[in-house]
Amino acid sequence: MPDHKPFDSRKGLSCSHPDQQDPAEWGRMISVNINGVLNGLGEFIGKMKKRKGGTVINLSSIAGVKGFPNHMAYCGTKFAVHGVSETLREEVADDNVRVITVAPGVVGTELLSHTASNDIKDGYESWKDRMGGVIHPEDIASCVSFAYNQPQNVCVREIVVSATRQQP
């Protein structure tokens, strides 16, 4: 088990229809989902490189692997997290720093509490029902624990996890 604590970036804000969303909401989403990750990395990555070891865990979304209609800005920010993570992994691998991206599907959280569109909220609830429920935060924690607790010379680069019946 690694002898250090990982840097963990957190999920940010969700989205609405691109033609109905205030561009200021896009700015907040970019600030949280992209700049938040970059700011955290700026704070910790130099220390990890200096000590020649560490683990970065960037929590993204399945929306960073594939697009979802009416979530253009959100998907764009999560694709950015994936790009930042993979680029950083290549930059710090020789310093024995692991970079892990976790991309959950639908998780039982309050993700849509930031979404003003009742149509999107209703569609989301219907989607969850069709898939027989969602995965739970504890499921994501188990995936993170698995990746983190590998020997330092093993890097699980990416985990994409969803409910078995989640489509797409």
Give the strand order, joined by hyphens, for the main sheet: 1-2-3-4
**Inertia-based shape:** globular
**What count of helical segments does DSSP give?**
4
Compute the average pLDDT: 86
Characterize the main sheet. 4 strands, parallel
Annotation, overall tally of beta strands: 4
Strand content: 5-15%
Output the structural class: alpha/beta
Global Rg: 17 Å
End-to-end Cα distance, whole Å, is: 35 Å
Order of helices and strands: EHEHEHHE
- Low-confidence segments: 7-13
Helix content: 40-55%
Q: How would you characterize this protein structure?
A:
With 168 residues, the chain is α/β, with parallel strands linked by helices. It is 45% helix and 12% strand. It has 4 helices and 4 strands; from the N terminus they run βαβαβααβ. It has a 4-stranded parallel sheet with strand order 1-2-3-4, with helices on both faces. Strand 1, helix 1 (23-51) and strand 2 form a beta-alpha-beta unit. It is globular. The termini are far apart.
